[in-house]
Amino acid sequence: MNRSFKKEPVEIRIPELEKKFKQAAKQPVKITQKQQKEEEKKTGGRKLLFAVLIFIAVIAGLIFFKKESGKQHQVENQVAGREIAKEDVVSREDETKQTVRAEQPPDEFFIKKVIFSPPQPLITDSIKADVSGDYQGTGHVTYEYTWHINGKPVKGIKDNTLPPGEFKKKDRISVIVIPFIDGAEKDPYKSMFIVIHSSPPSLELKEISQKLNQAIELQLISSDPDGDKVTFSLETPFLEGMTIEKETGKIIWNQKDKKKGTYKFKASATDGDGIKTSKNFEFKIGTK
């Protein structure tokens, strides 16, 4: 007769060990204050280290970017320099071409410039135009001049001198010069303009009265070639007690105890443009 046996699990229990394990599971792990501070220090140190690493990475990136940017600018500057050099070469080539084009055969003639004298003319001056030309031929060269005042041609004057009386202060003077070689007309030349400057006023002394122990009256007289109004003044050195009327030029010297002799002073006349004429004058008292 067969019998089957069912094996039952055998449970072995050790009461003392179970008690200790249960107590250990129930009790929470206690962290002391000292351990907590140490842990916080470790955490803070890790954060600081992380921040330092980020800062170093940023600085390194900026340095790298700056170097790359500098290299790029250097390359751009080199390229720009090469372009400027090319333009300069082209410009010099153009200048050379222009110079070559400007050269004339030996038998041709052209005017280089016209020089005026005086360079700053007054209303009382004659203005002369001196022509500078380039000609290596053997033909006879003559010129015809057409003067212009403020852009308008002057009639009746065909030579190189413009006489006074044709212009006034602040007029602009220019000239067109036409060269002829053996009677054949060549290319005309138009000059730059010059301006007529303000002329200085004249200044003279006219005595009115000179009596010993009395006020002495003197009179300055002036005229301006441009027709401007003139004002008068005393200049250093002048006599103590001497006065002047600016509009009329009348001088009064009211000095007591005047002695016989020669006296000197300085005065001036100024026109509306500030052009001044100064002179030293002298007068005598009680002498012949």
Keywords:
alpha+beta; Immunoglobulin-like; six-stranded antiparallel sheet; 16 strands; 28% helix; flat
Q: Any overview of this molecule?
A:
The protein is flat. The strands form four sheets. Strands 3, 4, 6, 7, 8 and 9 form a six-stranded antiparallel β-sheet that branches. A four-stranded antiparallel β-sheet has the order 10-11-14-13, with no helix packed on it. About 10% of the residues have low confidence. It has about 290 residues and is α+β, with helices and mostly antiparallel strands. Among the domains are: about 90 residues, Immunoglobulins (Immunoglobulin-like), CATH 2.60.40.10; about 80 residues, Sandwich (Immunoglobulin-like), CATH 2.60.40.
Topology:
Blueprint: H1 15-26, H2 33-102, E1 109-117, E2 127-135, E3 141-149, E4 152-153, E5 161-162, E6 172-181, E7 184-185, E8 189-190, E9 194-195, E10 204-209, E11 216-221, E12 231-235, E13 242-244, E14 250-253, E15 261-270, E16 276-285
